[in-house]
């Protein structure tokens, strides 16, 4: 879904924090007695509307509005007490010092006609909370260098020590300490910082990692930059953000389970708020916890930027007991954004149906889910990217046709019937796609036309092979370099439904179609597919020239929105294409976040209400910002937004639009119903031996046929 470029995950895995986490296994007594209720302080249109927040020593909350170029000041209750006109047309990062003065680091990137950074400007301004400038601002600092270097120099987070020096966390994940004139004092070396804060003695607290290391939190001495303490954290407990309250001398962290506090050595003591209580934002960029453990967050909610507070309130136990409680698991280990969306969607559902409570748990342990579901237990609803066939064949999932046929309010014409039909197993609908994406190729339209190569969305592997043959002598290749055999791996995967009938438990790898498929795979692998010098990234300099002049396809995009095809394309003129179709089977796969109801659930009707809620127009519009939606009206609204954004950026908004729609309408197979990984990997091991010349065609066919038959009959 937000897997916009899958090969980035495979080529250069970039360190991420808490990639799918286990649910909290227990709660403390205070959590059992209290909950948090959200209140909106301030919001503005545009996901970048609020670019920074900071809290003063008296509880004042300052927020920088990127579009207005103003600082808004609020008291603890969210009442606006003032605003400061910054003046410069730049972005701003905020922090308070020990005397409750507001520091504003202004930044501006100057670009050339190619949209490349050519200059970064900085300036520091200092105000009191009434908006008066109380100290001469620094001179404007100008930084020159390459476009990527300048991006890395942008400051994302700032803290002010007792001497008025600023600690700057940059996009490059480095930390630089500067004085009020923006003169560099020192840099923290040898580690990457994902977040920073400081304690009451000006020691630095860093959320860090080193190459190949686990995520850790380290307290670093201000005096000599030596480690005071260091604590590593497993991925299921790792924070994404940290915050230190100097008044209570308490360090807090935020991850996909909620907000928790640490002891004085960086060990987690307890969670103070779970993820369900922190609804209201799809992405949280910063959080603050005051001395009374009132929580403040800012981030984005759809196309709005919001500042929220969460105050503790006592739970009304009797009301909770009278509610029907539905247990919902979400399994999506590669992405975390959907979990925050789900939290907000659940809150809206509970407001609409006050007699139903959704207990939401994030899981990354598929084996645990398997054990629970296949023994008649588990959640009432399972959402996520799980393989579904085993659950279906063993009766763990309810056939949703039963609910649809008995629901006069559910009109199938309101939804993309192709993706719903493509999610059926036999005649039964056991999983409902909620949002989805599709694997695309981007064609080099100019180079294809210059070489008189015609192609459309119905193209096949055979077409790809023939195109490669026509340009081989011209030094033109199919694509940049990808991991060894990765493209072939993905292509072959989509053909397996033709050779395996799991309902009938039949395999036909000894047919002539499979022999032809093997020969074609080997021919492509031995051809001029990968350009020996071109890398998919970076898209600049000589590498970009090679991609544009010597490659025909920029492959393997997982797209869920139209405008990404234009923005991510390295070509000046783009031809939008699906993956080449297999020679046999005509499978067009889509990758979905699915929902299913446990066949043993005692709350099937309530669970169905929630699935319908997920498919409603407004909810689909909300969660479908970066994905295809199943609800047609929501998809049309989102497409209009994307077209408008493309126009503003100067793109031809309607180029490839019809192809985009046609590809979307051609989808016919939910990835969750594809051949499971364990079986595919067994088959691919034999194919790989064949492609490398270690096995001949007959040996390969015989072994694959035998292994698949054995698997199907186990």
TrEMBL record:
Annotated organism of origin: Lutispora thermophila DSM 19022
InterPro entries: Bact_solute-bd_prot1 (IPR050490), SBP (IPR006059)
Keyword Signal: yes
Superkingdom to which the source organism belongs: Bacteria
Alphabetically ordered keywords of this record: Signal
Lineage of producing organism: Bacteria, Bacillati, Bacillota, Clostridia, Lutisporales
Name the UniProt record assigns to this protein: ABC-type glycerol-3-phosphate transport system, substrate-binding protein
Segment forming the signal sequence: 1-19
The keyword Signal appears for this protein: yes
